[in-house]
Write a structure and sequence with these properties.
- The protein has 123 residues and is mainly beta.
- It has one helix and eleven strands, in the order βββαββββββββ.
Length: 123
């Protein structure tokens, strides 16, 4: 099982980035997927999730209205469009595959994790 995340980088506050994650099709096509992030010295936190068919999405309060999660089941990819970025969005971002078709926010709902991609937002 492999999850490959990409798209991180350095951006100024107010800018945008688009993260992408490609997963092994047989492990992700019927499972919800999500993005988490972890800043230095902090716990990993939920960012956004999307159900197996893309019909249900969920966002953390601090990214609602700025970030958009989407998926392409045929391509086994999940994306996170991040707009109006703030310095507090700086973190390593991880994609994850849930154990089920719909998911909650807790870490234990997810059994596969990508390697992470760094997002740095300068002020």
């Amino acid at each position: 099982v492999q999850l490959q995340a990409s798209g991180g980088g350095l951006v100024q506050a107010g800018g945008s980035l688009r993260l992408a994650c490609t997963a092994s099709k047989r492990t992700s096509s019927n499972n919800a997927m999500a993005w988490f992030r972890q800043a230095p010295g902090k716990e990993r936190e939920f960012v956004a999730s999307i159900s197996w068919n893309g019909g249900v999405t969920d966002y953390a309060d601090n990214v609602q209205g700025r970030f958009t999660i989407s998926r392409d089941r045929a391509a086994s990819t999940v994306a996170l469009q991040m707009n109006s970025l703030k310095p507090e969005d700086t973190a390593v971002y991880y994609c994850a595959v849930s154990r089920s078709s719909f998911t909650g926010r807790g870490l234990t709902n997810f059994n596969y994790w990508g390697q992470g991609t760094q997002v740095t937002v300068s002020s």
